[in-house]
Amino acid sequence: MNQKNDTSTDFILLGLFPWFRHPNLLILIIILIYTAAFTGNAILLLLIWLDSHLHTPMYFLLSQLSLIDLAYISCTVPKMVTNYFTGKKNISYFSCATQLFFFLTLGLAECILLTLMAYDRYVAVCNPLRYTVLMNPNTCLQMAAAAWIGGALAALVHTIYPMNFPICGSREINHYFCEMPAILRLSCMDISAYEMVKFVSTIVFLLIPFILILTSYTLIFLTVLRMNSRKGKNKALATCSSHMTVVSLYFGQAIFIYMTPTLAHTPEQDQIGAVLGTIVTPMLN
Hints:
Layout: E1 11-13, H1 23-50, H2 57-74, H3 77-86, E2 90-91, H4 93-126, H5 131-134, H6 137-163, E3 172-173, H7 180-184, H8 192-225, H9 230-259, H10 267-284
Parallel strand pairs: 1-3
Antiparallel strand pairs: 1-2
């Protein structure tokens, strides 16, 4: 571990699964996944922008999801790969706070956006005659703005508080990036009050959106069952099934990590959840 450039305020990122016996294989897999996710989302953005037939509410929201995923995976993986190849595992206090802020902003924005995408599918399937009225261009822009602004404001709160908790002893973060639970483990003060704030925020930004998404898809499923056209059923189910797969994976790991107390799960479980949410999910999207 090269720590020559460390200062008293630097953190040390131990990396992804430091106990893993074949780190070269692991980093190769991560690079391949990152390349696939970055390329796929970039091409999707380009196609939606170039093809006028795709200038619809569904594809506009999908382009926002691709944009979030591009930034989401890029705010963690390049730093991890750079640290691995250079051997320099330190990260400054400011860089750590910046990474945490962008990670939370993008994660929370994705939660909101996935909920809005479920609403879009609900209107398209259950109220098709009112679709153009309810999902007009201004509404789509307002939805995108709500996702980004809501995510940024909440992220600001959850960056300022953890980053100002006093650190006791080692400043080693058992993770491959600056994630909230990993930083909270370093604190030497009672964080129970903040854990309650985190729990309430998780209900607002994770549990409630997840319930709304489930409600939307329940109504969609009931509507699809009443359809006479097999082609219409298959089209509706195909459109919604991929979205539900990503929702289940993303919200499942996020609720596990953030709705439970920090000490209720191990750093290894945190890392597995982070890999699923920040690396695998952007590739699946």
